[in-house]
Design brief:
alpha+beta; binds aspartyl-adenosine-5'-monophosphate; eight-stranded mixed β-sheet
Length: about 475
C-alpha cells in the first residue's frame, strides 16, 4: 500500500523511516554517480538523493524542473560536511526508493528561484509561477497570518464580521466609480464600492455597534506603487465612541499584531506620536512623514497619527470640497460653525490618519450621525437640497431613526503588509494584482465583449478611441 503523504516540514520527525513526499522539482544536479533533486512543497525544501539504482537514477535524470512528482524513500541524517544550515531541513535528506511523475512541467518562462524578474507583464501573465517563488509564497502566508491575527483580536473585542454588497450604487466618495451595467434596468448601473463606508454606517443604525470586514474596494484611479484599482481594507466601525476610543483600539491592535506576527520588528515610539496636520505640513512638508530614526533598518516601524485635518479644502473650481469624506463630523467645538456654515476654512474634522514609515496605512473619522450636520456639509460643498436628497436621501432617512453616534477607520491592508514584508510595492503582496496600467495579462482583462452581450445590456460602444 502507498504511504500517506508526509509534508516536507515534518520530515525531521521521520529520520530512519520511509515516507512519501509530494511536491515540485525545485532543482536538479547530476553528479554522474548520483542525481540530486531539491524537492519543494508548500511547506519546505528537501534534498532527495538518487544513487545506487541505475534505473531510478536515469528516471530522476529525466525530470524537468517544476514538474509535480511523488517520491518515496528513507529520511536519513546527512554527513557532517554535507549539512546545509541555510534551510530548515538541511541536516537531513531522503534516499529515494521510487519516483512517480504526477505532472510534467514545460520549461517555465522565467526561473522560479530567481532574485528578480524585471518584466512585470511576464510575471503577471504567469502569476501562478511567479507565486511559486519563496519570497512571494512567504508574502501570501504572512498576509494570511496578519489577517488571521486581526480577525481573532476583533472577535475577542466583540466585533462582528459582516460582508456588504459589491453591487452597490454610484457615490461621490472621492474617486471615480467602476460601473456595472444592469441588464434588467437597461439605462441603469450598479457601482462597485470604493469602500463599504455607507453600509458600515447603516450597520450602526441597525444596532450592530461593532462591525468589521476585510473588504474589497474598487476605485477607478491610476495605479502607483502603493495604489491598485482593486485593493483590500480592514474596515471597521463602532457606535457610541469618541475619537480617542477608536484610535486607542487601533493602536493596540497594531502593536499586538507586530509583537505577535512580526516579533523581530521594533516599534520606534509607543504610544504612537500624534501630529496635527498643520504641524506635519510645516515641519515635514507632507501629511505622511517618515519618522524613522534609521531608514536603513528593515525592522524599524515608525507609526504616527495625523490629526486635526481641515474639514474642507478649495477645489479647482474655487468651491469647497471635503478632505476625507462627506460623512465626517467636525471636532465637537466646531459643530456650531459647521451647522451655521461659517468659518469654513477653520473647521477641523474629527479625522485621524495612521501613518507608517512614510505611508498612509489608514484613515477614519467620527461621523455626522445627525442629518442636519450632514446636510450642512453638503450645502457647504454647493449641493442643492435636491441633489443632496438624490445622492444621500437614504442616509438622511436612516439617520432619522435614532442613529447612534459612531465612528471608525479603514486600513489599507496591502500597504501595511507591503511595509511589514519590506516590499517596494503592493503588487508583491497581492495574489493577483493588476499592472500599473490597470490590466491583468493572465486573464486578459479588461476585454471587449460581443455584440449580443452589449445588446442585452442596452449598450453601444461609440468609439474605441477616446
Ligand atoms: P480612505 O479612502 O482613506 O478611507 O482609505 C483607507 C485606506 O485605504 C488605503 N487605500 C488604498 N490602498 C491601495 N490602493 C488604493 N487605491 C487605495 N486607496 C486607499 C490607504 C487608506 O489610508 N471609508 C474610508 C475609511 C473611514 O473613514 O472609515 C476610506 O475608505 O491606506
Amino acid at each position: 500500500m502507498k504511504n500517506l503523504r508526509t509534508l516536507i516540514s515534518e520530515t525531521p520527525n521521520h529520520i530512519g523511516s520511509s515516507v512519501t513526499l509530494n511536491g515540485w522539482v525545485h532543482s536538479k544536479r547530476n553528479m554522474g554517480q548520483i542525481v540530486f533533486i531539491d524537492l519543494r512543497d508548500g511547506f519546505g525544501l528537501l534534498q532527495v538523493v538518487f544513487g545506487g539504482n541505475p534505473e531510478l537514477q536515469a528516471q530522476a535524470d529525466q525530470l524537468k524542473t517544476e514538474s509535480a512528482i511523488s517520491v518515496t524513500g528513507k529520511i536519513v541524517e546527512r554527513g557532517g560536511k554535507n549539512v546545509n544550515d541555510k534551510i530548515a531541513t538541511g541536516k537531513i535528506e531522503m534516499q529515494a526508493e521510487s519516483l512517480e511523475v504526477l505532472n510534467e512541467s514545460l520549461t517555465p518562462p522565467f526561473e522560479i528561484d530567481r532574485d528578480n524578474v524585471e518584466d512585470e507583464e511576464l510575471r503577471l501573465k504567469y502569476r501562478y509561477l511567479d507565486l511559486r517563488h519563496d519570497r512571494m509564497h512567504k508574502n501570501l502566508v504572512m498576509r494570511h497570518k496578519t489577517i488571521s491575527f486581526i480577525r481573532n483580536f476583533l472577535d475577542s473585542n466583540n466585533f462582528v464580521d459582516v460582508d456588504t454588497p459589491l453591487l452597490s450604487a454610484p457615490t461621490p466618495e472621492g474617486a471615480r466609480d467602476f460601473l456595472v451595467p444592469s441588464r434588467k434596468y437597461a439605462d441603469s448601473f450598479y457601482a462597485l464600492p470604493q469602500s463599504p463606508q455607507q453600509y458600515k454606517q447603516l450597520l450602526m443604525v441597525a444596532g450592530l455597534e461593532r462591525y468589521y470586514q476585510i473588504a474589497k474596494c474598487m476605485r477607478d484611479e491610476d495605479s502607483r506603487g502603493d495604489r491598485q484599482p482593486e485593493f483590500t481594507q480592514l474596515d471597521l466601525e463602532m457606535s457610541f465612541v469618541e475619537q480617542e476610543e477608536v484610535m486607542a483600539l487601533n493602536e493596540k491592535l497594531l502593536i499586538e499584531l507586530v509583537q505577535t506576527v512580526y516579533p523581530e520588528k521594533k516599534i520606534q515610539t509607543v504610544p504612537f506620536p500624534r501630529i496635527s496636520y498643520k504641524d506635519a505640513i510645516e515641519k515635514y512638508g507632507t501629511d505622511r512623514p517618515d519618522l524613522r530614526e534609521d531608514k536603513t533598518d528593515d525592522n524599524l516601524l515608525a507609526f504616527c497619527w495625523i490629526v486635526d485635518f481641515p474639514f474642507f479644502e478649495k477645489n479647482d473650481a474655487g468651491g469647497w470640497t471635503f478632505t476625507h469624506n462627506p460623512f465626517s463630523a467636525p471636532i465637537p467645538q466646531h459643530m456650531d460653525d459647521l451647522l451655521g456654515q461659517k468659518n469654513i476654512e477653520n473647521i477641523i474634522a474629527a479625522q485621524y490618519d495612521v501613518v507608517l514609515n512614510g505611508s498612509e496605512i489608514g484613515g477614519g473619522s467620527i461621523r455626522n450621525h445627525n442629518t442636519d450636520a450632514l446636510k450642512a456639509t453638503l450645502a457647504i460643498m454647493g449641493y442643492s437640497p435636491e441633489k443632496s436628497a438624490a445622492d444621500f436621501g437614504h442616509m438622511f432617512e436612516a439617520f432619522s431613526y435614532g442613529a447612534p453616534p459612531h465612528g471608525g477607520i479603514a486600513w489599507g491592508l496591502d500597504r501595511l503588509v507591503m511595509i511589514l514584508q519590506n516590499e517596494p510595492n503592493i503588487r508583491e503582496v497581492i495574489a493577483f494584482p493588476k499592472t500599473d496600467k490597470g490590466r491583468d495579462p493572465m486573464m486578459e482583462s479588461p476585454r471587449t465583449v460581443d455584440e449580443k452581450t452589449l445588446k442585452e445590456l442596452g449598450l453601444q460602444i461609440r468609439s474605441t478611441k477616446s
